[in-house]
Amino acid sequence: MTAPISPEAPPLLGRVVRSFGKHYLVDLVDGGGRVECVARGKFRLTATDASNPVVAGDEVRVLIEGSTSGMQDRRQGTILEVLPRRSRLSRKATSHQGHEHVLVANIDQVVVVASIVQPDLKLGVIDRILVATESQNLPAVIVLTKSDLLGRAERKVIEEVADVYRAVGYPTLIVSTVNGDGMAEVREQLRDKVSTVAGQSGVGKSSLLNTIQPGLSLRVGVVSKANDKGKHTTTNAELVLLDELNGYVADTPGIRAFGLYGIASADVQHHFREFRPLLNSCGFYNCTHIHEPKCAIRAAVDRGEIDEGRYDSYVGIHASLVEEEANQFKSGLRM
Ligand code: GDP
Ligand code: ZN
Q: Which of the listed residues 125, 185, 207 should we mutate to test ligand 1's pocket, taking the one with most ligand atoms within 8 A of CB?
């Protein structure tokens, strides 16, 4: 049972799932299997993003040589071309000089995981992650975990919270890995997509992914605080295949991409989706929506059209970035 592939075979499309040194593991489309590839030397030099010409998530065109015979896969590939990246998660949102370090490419969505209890739900944390995902133009899905620990009255409150986010445009699921509540919906959200998971430690990210695919253990990181510059990690991102869903979960250690680093205080308003239609209606063109008269955002909060909790998150995030900018300015004076 030999299936030789002629050297003249046309290049195939694939997706890079992992890189190690100058080698890449590529999943060929249409169930073509996983092949180890190298990138063509010339290609490496001409890549526009020289610091990471090929990263996990990249869609590539590869030339396959060798064959599979029986159980043995002797195929080898050469990456000829990296298709344009539809999205990217980078280590730095803004780079003053040098190259942006791309961690993973072509993420379709971010799954924001938060527990309802143990630890208690912190909507401010969710809102901060959403500001980060909006700033990178990434769709987000919210998953609220540990619903099995809720009484009936509490459940009603959580449904109301979920409705706030649904109204803003984020699919929001209430789930439990203990009794299976909502898990079918989580699977549907992950189907056919490349997702990445964000959320604080202990909220149930590993349990969630393990329930979907037993044995899956990710190194998913913790969301960093706005003032936490963090340390660079040397581990590469990796896409983990969800066998039954034709989807992937991107395991991106150093998920600092979800911090607010690089976002200017004046831009936060644009990252609250429900604010956008009103931003041109304030009395002052540079309204911060905090203390100015004739503010369309605060008027909408007063009318109950913008959720008060979301608005409070805006105020908190804005304030923390203003403070950070002032500190940066101050330390700049001493340089
Ligand atoms: P991670 O740090 O976000 O990956 O969180 P883990 O998946 O390690 O979960 C943290 C703790 O929460 C563990 O003790 C889990 O057993 C527990 N846990 C996770 N999901 C649920 C759930 O749906 N219900 C309950 N009751 N506990 C859960
Ligand atoms: Zn305003």
A: 207
